[in-house]
Amino acid sequence: MSRHQRLLFSLLAVVLALTGTGTAIAAPRLNIEITGGIEAAQPIAIVPFGVSEGLIPPVDVASVVSADLARTGKFKPMPTRDMLDMPTSREAVDFRDWSLLGMNNLVIGQIEPDGTGFRVSFSLYDVFRGEELTSETLVSSKSGMRHTAHRIADLIYEKLTGQRGVAATRIAYVTSSGSGDSQTVTLRVSDSDGDQPQTIVSSSEPIMSPAWSPDGRRIAYVSFENRRAAIYVQELGSGRRDLVASYPGINGSPAFSPDGRRLAMTLSKDGSPDIYVLDLTSRQLSRVTDHFAIDTEPSWSPDGQHLIFTSNRGGSPQIYRMPASGGPAERISVEGDYNARASYAPDGRSIAMVTRINGEFRIGVLDLERRLTRLLSSGNLDESPSFAPNGSMVIYATIHGGRGVLAAASVAGGGNQRLSQDSGQVREPAWSPFMQ
Amino acid sequence: MPRFPSKLFPLLAILCAGLTAAGCASTPPDAPQANANATIGSLPGSQTSTAGLESTRPTYAGPWEDPTNALYKRTIYFDYDSSEIKPEYVVVMRTHAAYLGSKAGTKVTLEGHTDERGTREFNLALGDQRAEAVRRVMIADGVRPEQIATLSYGEERPADPGHGEPSWRLNRRVVIQY
């Protein structure tokens, strides 16, 4: 095919794919697999929830809650088959039995009809003291039952750890299948466990670098549709999108400021790749770095005061920090000859990045106070780290069995999982903020 | 359209030589097979078919698609993590620069690519620098700046999808796209 034929085809493919962006398209789900590190986890029993006579809930709430808690690496839910008794009310609970089974905590619950939906109540107990720790009732639509189960998991997690849970958050990621001119690239959003995936953009040309707005309602990304790089900001609810950058050269690395009003990005329109900040309201673009070397991959500090970015101005790619309004940049990565794609932990005390060790690309977390890097991954082409909004885990892209998959690791150690598709490649995960 | 078996050529040549008056040579190359059983002249019991010669010269959008043309080489390969042009590719760029210099209306896009090692956005920047390096040389060689656009794909469109140096060396490249 000539270049123009190909151009025509790719335009057509994008147009077809984008027809009716208002409704996201259901996509094949990500399979999740726990790959280790649950030995130190706390034993907890999530008893199958009682269901009112004749009611058929669309989701097994207790099993979703168990899976969510297991994924955190901090809990080891008891398999249902090991339970001697399945109480659904406080009166039916014998704490001595659960204590003998080695459980620290117990969760029971009930599902009742509520109009066309459901009323889901649960109670969390301290088994040793025989005390109720919390008890709540949530109202759910039929289609919202999985989300309700995730919220219950988060309430239990928060009560027991003091940290907000992330089961009810989402992940965005890029998939591809086929190659060359026949490839299909999609940008998808799923629940944090890979369930309920939906395609929000599909193209025959590359899609890159999804980034969430702080309110979780928009995603910025790079698309090569029309055979040029451009940055779009897409509203998840409506599917409507805005073209925000389409300059000659690179249009890459979008990153929302913590207030959601500005978008940092990499452009090479003025020569070499540099960092720019676009005010999304006034559309005013300002350049914040000006160096003949490569400056890219900007990420905002949680207080919005600083930007960190990758630059090879010193010879090799390293992480630098500068005031978001511009000014001098200081190098903050200390070891190694390749450190890139850094992003702040939600508390601002550490950064996750890609670091090269003996020729292998791994995910590292650099403690900014102690200046120590700890490795979270063990692959050789690991990339695109993204913190969970509570800072407990980092999701990243890795190669497994020759295919691109996602993996998540607990920052404290002791919890790993892998998310893959039945076919095709998965890459560039971006963990959403907390959803309102 | 099917090609004629080559052993038919001498026969066709003889037939054509004798039947030029019948319009053999002017039969269009894509004439349908409908006249395959047409009876020619009045030779009793003789069934003769004629066909024009199919052009064996492929059609190209431009000389850069012709494998026998020097412009066919359109890829410049790079070392790992480098946007420095290696001496063996200077002639490739000069050839295209000379052609573009003589064809002011012709435009090209320099597509920069990298292998999969390193982060995607850094590779996007590296692909941009590779395309820029080629652009600078071609402009120095007389190509007008408005004839050249650059587009970096980073590691997003590998020429070879494998995960090892034999694949990677093919992926670190700039392609001159007409």
UniProtKB/TrEMBL annotation, chain A:
Oligomer and partners: The Tol-Pal system is composed of five core proteins: the inner membrane proteins TolA, TolQ and TolR, the periplasmic protein TolB and the outer membrane protein Pal. They form a network linking the inner and outer membranes and the peptidoglycan layer.
Q: Where is this region: Disordered?
A: 416-436
What is one GO biological process annotated to this record?
Answer: cell division
The text of the family note is: Belongs to the TolB family.
Source lineage: Bacteria, Pseudomonadati, Pseudomonadota, Gammaproteobacteria, Chromatiales
Identify the main location. Answer: periplasm
Q: Which HAMAP family match?
A: TolB (MF_00671)
Domain of life of the native organism = Bacteria
**Subcellular locations according to the entry:** Periplasm
Organism of derivation: Thiobaca trueperi
Range of residues in the leader sequence: 1-26
- Keywords linked to the UniProt accession: Cell cycle, Cell division, Periplasm, Signal
* Residues in TolB N-terminal domain copies: 30-133
Q: Show the Gene3D superfamilies listed in the entry.
A: TolB, C-terminal domain, TolB, N-terminal domain
By which gene is this protein encoded? tolB
Its biological function? Part of the Tol-Pal system, which plays a role in outer membrane invagination during cell division and is important for maintaining outer membrane integrity.
Q: Which InterPro entries match?
A: 6-blade_b-propeller_TolB-like (IPR011042), Tol-Pal_TolB (IPR014167), TolB_N (IPR007195), WD40 (IPR011659)
Which protein is depicted? Tol-Pal system protein TolB
Q: Name one GO cellular component term.
A: periplasmic space
Automatic annotation (TrEMBL), chain B:
Report the sequence similarity comment from the record.
Belongs to the Pal lipoprotein family.
Q: Which HAMAP family match?
A: Pal
By its UniProt entry, which PROSITE patterns does this protein fall under? OMPA_2 (PS51123), PROKAR_LIPOPROTEIN (PS51257)
Q: What biological-process GO terms show up in the record?
A: cell division
Which GO CC terms are listed, alphabetically?
cell outer membrane
Alphabetized, the UniProt keywords read:
Cell cycle, Cell division, Cell outer membrane, Lipoprotein, Membrane, Palmitate, Signal
Coiled-coil-forming residues are none
Region named Disordered: 35-62
Signal peptide (from-to):
1-22
Official protein name in the record? Peptidoglycan-associated lipoprotein
As for what it does, the entry says: Part of the Tol-Pal system, which plays a role in outer membrane invagination during cell division and is important for maintaining outer membrane integrity.
Mention any Pfam family matching this sequence.
OmpA
